[in-house]
Design a protein that fits this description.
Elements lengths: L3 H4 L5 E4 L2 E2 L5 H7 L3 H6 L5 E2 L3 H15 L1 E5 L5 H11 L3
Parallel strand pairs: 1-4, 2-3
Helix pairs in contact: 4-5
């Protein structure tokens, strides 16, 4: 049996972003009583902020540092996140 460390490169890690462009989905704000700025200020890996370029840089850094290769966002952010997807599509 292979050890988990040997299989790590076969695993795709994902992250579900709780905050995009200084906004949190309504359901997160209501349930967790948190705001996007709080997540960003605390250095949450589930928060991205800034311009499209800054967001891309943050996601690429997290991929390199933490191994996240799949990013999920709330349906509330689909349109605003589309620019990020376009920019990162071939990276």
């Amino acid at each position: 049996m292979r050890q988990p460390g040997q299989r790590f490169s076969d695993i795709e890690l994902n992250i579900n972003l709780m905050s995009v462009a200084d906004q949190v989905p309504r359901w997160i704000a209501a349930r967790l009583h948190t705001m996007a700025r709080e997540l960003t200020d605390r250095g949450s890996v589930a928060a991205v902020s800034g311009t499209t370029d800054q967001t891309c840089d943050q996601l690429l850094e997290r991929r390199d540092k933490l191994g996240f290769s799949c990013v999920l966002v709330s349906d509330e952010f689909i349109e605003s996140f589309a620019r990020v997807v376009e920019r990162l599509a071939d990276r």
